[in-house]
């Protein structure tokens, strides 16, 4: 960003533990932005723009700068959502010099189901039409799918005054779930999302249910894209389970030519191996857990990934996506190794 940025916004947060919130923001966004920290001041720069946060007398003063109003709205929303998340049950006040404009959010895209079919036994693909697929062609690959109640006209979220999303409630309540955009067809104006079908799960699976029952003409919406773009590094190490297969497949297909790719992937059995496309320079270590989905069965993923992480070169990008506790264990290994945080994406996709 430069001094010629056209859209700026200031705000002020008053958390119960201001320094802890600033620390959390810097620690989290190092995987998603360039973070420069100098004592009580932090500057975050990413594709949307820049954010300057300064700790003063127990509050955090915020200055945002972006090249479009839409990017400014998104930056405010991203920062607000994360600050409230980091605050947890502690009180947090957040005010902006100018509150968000009414109406739906800047990065919401209405989509319509075109078709749905099985890709493998446990993966089902839904193809959507979208009026403008341009935002999904490059950059981040994750979105939040918003599933409206059947038989009702969808009501999409707007913004609260503090910048967070204002979700519809009651009979209009939406079901939001995070997914990877598997592919985009610019010529056809379509995009595809692959949904893992949970064959042995005793908890609700609304995303998988939506994909299983999807019919042409059904309406939904996507928030995003955001986070987890295609890494650009001479070497990429992919670690995860079948929940990460769509993201891994997208990376395998779109990583620059000549990239050395190594993957360690835990799946139920060999039937799921057909999902991942092959390419020169790709080596895959498949781990089959069978029908055992207990925590003990997942230790094999961690133990197999440990030496791969410890032996990875300093310029290797490490992509990790799997169960929450497994991600925490793998992050501990990364921290001990001291791997460059800007060369890491580590996110939990589900919780055991």
Automatic annotation (TrEMBL):
Q: Which residue ranges does the record assign to the FAD-binding FR-type domain?
A: 106-232
Stored PROSITE patterns: FAD_FR (PS51384)
Domain of life of the organism encoding this protein = Bacteria
Q: Which GO terms fall under molecular function for this chain's record?
A: oxidoreductase activity
Matching entries from Gene3D superfamilies are given as:
Alpha-D-phosphohexomutase, C-terminal domain, Nucleotide-binding domain of ferredoxin-NADP reductase (FNR) module, Translation factors
The cross-references to InterPro entries, in alphabetical order and at most eight, read:
FAD-bd_FR_type, FNR_nucleotide-bd, Riboflavin_synthase-like_b-brl, SIP_FAD-bd, SIP_fam, SIP_rossman_dom, UCP028291
Q: Name one Pfam family in it.
A: FAD_binding_9
Family (UniProt): Belongs to the SIP oxidoreductase family.
Any idea what this protein is called? Siderophore-interacting protein
């Amino acid at each position: 960003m430069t001094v010629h940025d056209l859209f700026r916004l200031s705000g002020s947060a008053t958390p119960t533990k201001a320094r802890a919130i600033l620390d959390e923001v810097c620690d989290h966004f190092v995987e998603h932005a360039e973070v420069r920290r100098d004592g009580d001041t932090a500057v975050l720069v990413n594709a949307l723009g820049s954010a300057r946060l300064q700790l003063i007398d127990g509050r955090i003063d915020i200055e945002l700068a972006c090249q479009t109003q839409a990017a400014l709205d998104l930056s405010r929303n991203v920062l607000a959502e994360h600050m409230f998340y980091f605050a947890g049950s502690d009180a947090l006040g957040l005010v902006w010099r100018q509150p968000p404009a009414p109406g739906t959010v800047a990065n919401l895209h209405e989509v319509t189901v075109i078709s749905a079919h099985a890709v493998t036994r446990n993966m089902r693909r839904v193809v959507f039409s979208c009026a403008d697929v341009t935002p999904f062609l490059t950059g981040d690959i994750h979105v939040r799918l918003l599933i409206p109640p059947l038989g009702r006209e969808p009501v999409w979220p707007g913004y609260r005054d503090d910048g967070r999303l204002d979700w519809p409630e009651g009979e209009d309540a939406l079901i939001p779930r995070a997914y990877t955009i598997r592919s985009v067809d610019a010529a056809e104006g379509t995009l595809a999302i692959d949904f893992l079908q949970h064959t042995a799960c005793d908890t609700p699976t609304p995303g998988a249910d939506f994909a299983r029952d999807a019919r042409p003409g059904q309406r939904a919406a996507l928030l995003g894209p955001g986070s987890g773009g295609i890494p650009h590094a001479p070497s990429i190490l992919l670690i995860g389970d079948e929940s990460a297969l769509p993201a891994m497949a997208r990376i395998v297909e779109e990583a620059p030519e000549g990239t050395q790719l190594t993957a360690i992937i835990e799946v139920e059995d060999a039937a799921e191996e057909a999902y991942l496309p092959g390419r020169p320079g790709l080596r895959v270590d498949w781990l089959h857990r069978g029908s055992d989905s207990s925590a003990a069965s997942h230790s094999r993923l961690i133990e197999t990934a440990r030496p791969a992480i410890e032996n990875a070169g300093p310029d290797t990008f490490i992509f990790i996506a799997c169960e929450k506790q497994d991600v925490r264990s793998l992050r501990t290994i990364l921290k001990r190794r001291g791997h460059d945080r800007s060369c890491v994406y580590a996110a939990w996709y589900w919780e055991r």
